[in-house]
Amino acid sequence: MLVIELTNTREVMRKHIGPLRERLIGRMVDPETQVEKAVIQELETAFKSLGIEANILSVDGLELVGDRLEIPFKLREIRQVTSSS
Asked: How many domains is the chain partitioned into structurally?
């Protein structure tokens, strides 16, 4: 399994659409999402040409901390249940 973290999405957007448009679009569109879509499309094209079958996932919320991949989640409710004697 491969995990790829895109680390310069704003710079990529700026390079391809220009700094002014990037600032304007950045307010309406998430640059990370747009770059991920483009990368996924390129991966799909390359995989197909090589005969590779794969599941490509775009996942929000994962965090790379040092050499560990953390998966944070939000708790809706916490309840402690104890037996009463």
From this structure: 1
Structure tokens at 5: 């973290």
What is the tens place of the pLDDT at every residue in 18-74? 766 666 665 666 778 888 998 999 999 999 999 999 999 888 888 889 999 998 888
Q: Is residue 58 part of a domain?
A: yes
10 Å CB burial of residue 76 (0-12, 13-18, 19+) is exposed
Residue 78 token pair: 């916490």
Q: Please choose, from the candidates 49, 45, 48, 25, the residue with its C-alpha nearest in 3D space to the C-alpha of residue 37.
A: 45
Q: Provide the strand spans (E) within 1-85.
A: 63-65, 68-70
Domain residues for 48? 9-70
Asked if residue 2 belongs to a domain, the reply is no
